[in-house]
Every structure is written in structure tokens, then in C-alpha cells.
């Protein structure tokens, strides 16, 4: 299956790419994260994704950074409980739309590997987005590889944000 992987950062990219390939899927990446601030932090993360993706032989699309779109999306989400799902929805929807426009069979997200995200809410957002866009959501609980991937990132000298 040809899968588009939404990537939040290089350390979180490692395990999902390895797992998708192990399962014989074709994968490309999609780095869309207007939620990352300040802009210098966004550029660090993007640079690390570019470096790791090149090393891994992963093609990645990099839509323009649009902080205004992010802030408009979360304007009513004053607290984290509301803000995070709104942000995930924005990023996942953009990924699914790109997948649809570019002939992918499905989409998924590295966010499904983070033990710091509300996994069930994120999964539901992805399922809803699949229904809305008509692009299949490929579900995998990538959390099983989180620690090993982050350890690997550290040994490779890949930048890991501290928040």
C-alpha cells in the first residue's frame, strides 16, 4: 500500500518509517507543522527531518509554514484539552488532502507513536478525516517503537526538542 506519513519531527519519524517498510508498504512523508513556535524551532525540526529523510531514502513534501492558519484554527481552544485536537485536525486534514490529490492509498501519522498525545482522540480524528476526504486511514499503534527510536535519534545526533 502507498501510505503518506504525517511527520511531526525526525525522532518520531524513525520507527514508523522502519515499521511501514518492514510491512512492505511504500511510504512518503508529509511535514506540515504550523503549530511549532518560534519559527527558529520549526526550522530546526524541518532541517532534522530533511537530513534523516535523505539518509532513510524517504521522499517528503514540505508545505509552506502557515502560522496564521494554525492560530485561526485554535482561536477558541484556550486550554490544551481543546487546542491539541484542533491542531491535530488541521494537520491531519492537510495530510489526507495531499494524499488524495497525489494518489496515495492511505495516510497515517507519527503522532500515533507519541506517549504524550491522547492516542484515542487522535485516532478518532484520523478516522473522521478519512471519512471526510475519502482517503483510507492506516492505523498502527507506533508507541511500541517510541523509546527505541528516540534512543536511536540521540545516538545519531538527531536534534530532539526539549518540550
Describe this structure in words.
The termini are far apart. By secondary structure, the protein is an alpha/beta fold. Helix 1 (10-22) runs parallel beside helix 2 (39-56) and helix 4 (80-101) runs parallel beside helix 5. It has helices at residues 10-22, 39-56, 67-74, 80-101, 119-133, 146-156, and strands at residues 2-6, 26-30, 60-61, 106-109, 136-137. The protein has 6 helices and 5 strands. A 5-stranded parallel beta sheet has the order 3-2-1-4-5, with helices on both faces.
Radius of gyration: 15 Å
How far apart, in Å, are the first and last alpha carbons? 33 Å
Beta strands, count: 5
Structural class of the helix and strand makeup? alpha/beta
Low-confidence stretches: none
pLDDT averaged residue by residue? 94
Biggest sheet, open or closed, and with what strands and sense? 5 strands, parallel
> What is the overall silhouette?
globular
Strand order of the largest sheet: 3-2-1-4-5
Q: Could you give the order of the helices and strands?
A: EHEHEHHEHEH
Question: Nutshell version of this structure?
Answer:
Helices cover 53% and strands 11% of the residues.
Amino acid at each position: 500500500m502507498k501510505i503518506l506519513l504525517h511527520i511531526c519531527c525526525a525522532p518520531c519519524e524513525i520507527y514508523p518509517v522502519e515499521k511501514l517498510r518492514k510491512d512492505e508498504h511504500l511510504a512518503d512523508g508529509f511535514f506540515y507543522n504550523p503549530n511549532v513556535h518560534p519559527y527558529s524551532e520549526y526550522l530546526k525540526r524541518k532541517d532534522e527531518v530533511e537530513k534523516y529523510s535523505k539518509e532513510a531514502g524517504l521522499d517528503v513534501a514540505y508545505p509552506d509554514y502557515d502560522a496564521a492558519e494554525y492560530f485561526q484554527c485554535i482561536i477558541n481552544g484556550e486550554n490544551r484539552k481543546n487546542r491539541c485536537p484542533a491542531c491535530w485536525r488541521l494537520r491531519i486534514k492537510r495530510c489526507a488532502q495531499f494524499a488524495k490529490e497525489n494518489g496515495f492509498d492511505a495516510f497515517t501519522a507519527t503522532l500515533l507513536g507519541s506517549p504524550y498525545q491522547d492516542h484515542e482522540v487522535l485516532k478518532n480524528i484520523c478516522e473522521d478525516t478519512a471519512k471526510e476526504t475519502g482517503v483510507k486511514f492506516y492505523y498502527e499503534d507506533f508507541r511500541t517503537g517510541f523509546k527505541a527510536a528516540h534512543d536511536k535519534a540521540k545516538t545519531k545526533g538527531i536534534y530532539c526538542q526539549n518540550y
